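Translate sequence into C-alpha cells.
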Amino acid sequence: MTQKEFEERTGLKVSADYFANVEKVYMAAGDMDKDLFCKEWMKCRSSQLVAELYRETERLKELLKERNAELEAAERKEEKTRYSFADFLLEQAERDCSKYALYNEAVELVGHAHIIRRKMELDLTLWDDDKSYILENLD
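Result follows.
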C-alpha cells in the first residue's frame, strides 16, 4: 500500500516517517486487505499493545534469520564433512579394489556424478560402474 492509498482510506495526512512505521505494521500483517487494515489502524493506531506486538514480531523475525544462518552454516559444514569422508572412502577403495562397499558408501554420500568428478580430479582409476554411468549420462 502506498502512503497516498493509506491517506485516502483513513482520511489522515501523515509524514513519510509516520507512514514508514504504518507500512512496517502493514507488511507484518501478512495478506490483510488494505481496507480492513486501514479500518483496524484507525481503531488502534496509538495502541501500546499493537506497538509491542509489532516489536516482538520484528525481534522474532531477526531471531529466525539468525537461526537460519546458523542452520545454513551447519549444513555447509556437514556437506564439507560428507565430501571429505567420500574422498577418504574413495582413496581406501582405490588402494584395495575389493573394498567395493567403501566405494558404494561414497556414492551414497555424495552421488555418483561427484564421485566420478573427484576420481578424475584425484587421478584415480575409473571403474566399470563409473564408465557405465558416464555412458548412460552422455546425451
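Note: The CA atoms of residues 86 and 108 lie 9 Å apart.
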